[in-house]
Amino acid sequence: MPITVIVADDQAMVRDGIATLLDAAADIDVVGQAADGREAVDLAREHRPDVVVMDVRMPVLDGLAATREITEADGTGPRVLVLTTFDLDEYVYEALGAGASGFLLKDAPVEDLRTAVRVVARGDALLAPSVTRRLIGDIARRRRERIHARPQAFDQLTPREVDVLRQIARGLSNAEIATELFLSEQTVKTHVGRILMKLGLRDRTQAVVFCYENGLA
C-alpha cells in the first residue's frame, strides 16, 4: 500500500509543486491539499492519511496549532512532517512540542523530502541536519526547568532500556543500536516500544528531546 499524504501550504504554487513531487514517487499517494491549518485538520480527519506535510505560516490556523490538533486527537492519527522555509529555533521547539515527527527545510533536495515522508510514515523521526543537535540542545536548556517531574519516569525503565534510550538520543537507528549493544534488531524494536509506552512519548523525536531535557544525553 502506498503512503498516503496530505500537503498543507497556503501558497498554491508551492503546495502543488510539493504534491506533484511526492505523487511522482511510486510508493507515495497525495490524497489531499490544504490551503490553511484548519483545512489541514479537517482533511486529516476525513482521509486519515499516514503523513501530513505541514507548512508553519498559514492563515486561519497556523501549522503548529494544526499539528497539535492532529497529533493530539487519539494518538493513532497521522504523523506530521513540518516543512518550512525558516530555520528558526522557536519553530522547531514549537513543532516538536506540538507533536511533529519531522522537521525539514523547503530547500532540501526532492529525494530528501520523499525520504522524510517515508521515515515519518514508518514511525521514526527526522530532523533537518542543520537543526538536529544545535536545536535539540537549545530546546533542552530552555525547557529543563519546566520538566522537573518527568525524571521520575526513569524509575520505570530497566537498565537495558536506559541503554537503548541513550542510543536513541545519539540518533542511532534500530539496526545501529543492535550492533552497538550486541542485540537482535527485533529485541531493540521491542525495547523502543516499551520505552515510548513507559515514558508516554509518541515517537523517537520526543524520546531524543526527553533525553536532552533530563540530562541523559
TrEMBL record:
Coiled coil: none annotated. Residues 4-121 form the Response regulatory domain. Keywords: DNA-binding, Phosphoprotein, Transcription, Transcription regulation. It holds the Pfam family GerE. It comes from the Bacteria. Gene3D superfamilies: 3.40.50.2300. GO terms for biological process: phosphorelay signal transduction system; regulation of DNA-templated transcription. The modification 4-aspartylphosphate is found at D55. One of its GO terms (molecular function) is DNA binding. Residues 150-215 form the HTH luxR-type domain. InterPro entries: CheY-like_superfamily (IPR011006), NreC/VraR/RcsB-like_REC (IPR058245), Sig_transdc_resp-reg_C-effctor (IPR016032), Sig_transdc_resp-reg_receiver (IPR001789), Tscrpt_reg_LuxR_C (IPR000792), WalR-like (IPR039420). This is Two component transcriptional regulator, LuxR family. It comes from Marinactinospora thermotolerans DSM 45154. The lineage of its organism: Bacteria, Bacillati, Actinomycetota, Actinomycetes, Streptosporangiales.
